[in-house]
Amino acid sequence: MKNILLVTIIVLLFFSCKKTEEPKVTTPEYNPGEGWNQSWSEEFNGTSLNTALWNYDIGTGTSGWGNNELQTCRSENVVLENGNLVITAKSEVYNSSNFTSGRINTKDKYSFKYGKIVGKIKLPEGYGMWPAFWMLGSSAQAWPACGEIDIMEAKGGDGPNGDQTIFSTCHWQNGSNAHQYYGKEYVHTAKLSQDFHFYEVEWNATTITARFDGIQYNVTNITSADVSELKDNAYFIILNIAVGGNIFSPPLTNPANITASFPQKMYVDWIRVYQK
Predict the structure, then answer these.
(1) According to the model, what pLDDT value does residue 2 have?
(2) Radius of gyration (C-alpha) of the chain in whole angstroms
(3) Which residues touch 94 (CB under 8 Å, ≥6 apart)?
(4) pTM of the full structure
């Protein structure tokens, strides 16, 4: 009888001490809403980047495209793994830069005008990370006259909510030939590096509306003649991680001030375009 009682106590202790596993956080399936039809997608299911759709942007933030970014972008930092595009930022000296990263675009291979563009993405984190999912106008005009639509940008580690905060911004050249922009931020309840989320812009002839996981947080009115580049141009897609640069205030241009731990990665499950 004593043996039976002893075994019972041991079993009860085992189950009372066993750790309860946390439920796995999963992103629900995206629903574009009634009337929207998928017109284009990139699911990143292959083994290498589809260069019929994408170009590698190779260069630095000081000589290639400005913004005082501290990385050199290389094709080696862009891979496909487990059905995701993975862009990796690394702390390594290359081509006079202290960091390397990756940047790709669909220029001259795919562009569109009006519709809903959505990306399912998991972001990097840490001070100095500048991930972006954005578009530039396909016209021959130089920036900002070509127009720019930032679907998602983040100033990683900037302030107490830096790794929880994203921005959506539109840039254009106004009637005085000066750069002008309008944007807003959204602060999530958790770090955006913890899970995939839906980053979305809905674009028509009158407004550009930004959403995070279906939550609307920014609407830009584009009816003015001053913002014609946001209505008249088709736009191509860009995905990248920058390190440092002008998005930080003051601009983050000293490599010693980057405190993010490396490597840092941005995972992109898919990009889809819907139209009516």
Answers:
(1) 45
(2) 22
(3) 72, 74, 100
(4) 0.89
